[in-house]
Automatic annotation (TrEMBL):
GO terms for cellular component: membrane protein complex. Keywords: ATP-binding, Nucleotide-binding, Translocase, Transport. InterPro entries: AAA+_ATPase, ABC_transporter-like_ATP-bd, ABC_transporter-like_CS, MacB-like_ATP-bd, P-loop_NTPase. PANTHER family: CELL DIVISION ATP-BINDING PROTEIN FTSE (PTHR42798:SF6), LIPOPROTEIN-RELEASING SYSTEM ATP-BINDING PROTEIN LOLD (PTHR42798). It comes from Thermoflexibacter ruber. The keyword DNA-binding does not apply. GO terms for molecular function: ATP binding; ATP hydrolysis activity; transmembrane transporter activity. This is Putative ABC transport system ATP-binding protein. PROSITE patterns: ABC_TRANSPORTER_1 (PS00211), ABC_TRANSPORTER_2 (PS50893). Pfam families: ABC_tran. Belongs to the ABC transporter superfamily. Macrolide exporter (TC 3.A.1.122) family. Residues 2-220 form the ABC transporter domain.
């Protein structure tokens, strides 16, 4: 599903080039639940941005579902993102002026699905994460764990093959983190969605099938 071969990534910093990913190799099969760990600055966000086709890389190969993701036009990149990837962020990234159902329905709004139909589907996904009764509530009225579940429902509504989660439990207490991890495990187990979680929390990583450890732009284990 996700294959990285000899990936190099540099950032231009003034007149200098910062070598951030140094020949990274990684394969993640469809249906895996993995975590990516590493100290601050080891390149986790850089890697996640490449995996999410939000940023390009300088050399190497990234195959997503057997298709190379190098030098795509904006349109093509958006197409592959919508087709394959769901994003979940530490800060939830929900719109406070829209209720939970409308937040979940947002990807379908961009796909021009009519309002009635997209709201009906959004309710099904809210139900999937145990929040059907909260459909009419603003994210402002919800707990951190509930907000993250809304964000997961929003990621699921486009039927992604892969979910990329950047510190999804970073803003949550232990108990709420566990609830959120349960949802990830469930969608992974029941729907075969590949889940890739960047985390610095051992308790979170331990619940995944495989921990990928990054150090100085390379995988060390
Ligand atoms: N847009 C950028 N321009 C220049 N340098 C960058 C840019 N983004 C990241 N870097 C540098 O690249 C290196 C890797 O950063 P990255 O954010 O990928 O690490 P990280 O493992 O996600 O760290 P953290 O856990 O702190 O988020 C760091 O030295 C960082 O300063």
């Amino acid at each position: 599903m996700v294959v990285l071969q000899n990936i190099h990534k540099y950032y231009e910093v003034g007149a200098n080039k910062l070598h951030v990913l140094k020949g990274l190799d990684m394969t993640i099969e469809q249906g895996e639940l993995v975590s990516i760990m590493g100290s601050s600055g080891s390149g986790k966000s850089t890697l996640l941005n490449i995996l999410g086709i939000l940023d390009d890389y300088d050399s190497g190969t990234y195959l997503l579902n057997n298709t190379p993701m190098k030098q795509l036009s904006q349109t093509k990149a958006a197409y592959y993102r919508n087709q394959f990837i769901g994003f979940v962020f530490q800060s939830f990234n929900l719109l406070s002026f829209k209720n939970a159902m409308e937040n979940v329905a947002l990807p379908l709004y961009y796909q021009k699905v009519p309002r009635k139909q997209r709201n009906k589907i959004a309710l099904e996904y809210l139900d999937r994460v145990g929040l059907k009764e909260w459909a009419e509530h603003s994210p402002n009225e919800m707990s951190g764990g509930q907000r993250q579940r809304v964000a997961i429902a929003r990621a699921l509504i486009s039927k992604p093959k892969v979910i990329l989660a950047d510190e999804p439990t970073g803003a949550l207490d232990t108990k709420t983190s566990e609830e959120v991890m349960e949802i990830f495990k469930e969608v992974n187990r029941e729907e075969g969605i590949t889940v890739i979680i960047v985390t610095h929390e051992n308790d979170v990583a331990k619940q995944t099938q495989r921990i990928i450890k990054l150090k100085d732009g390379n995988i060390i284990s």
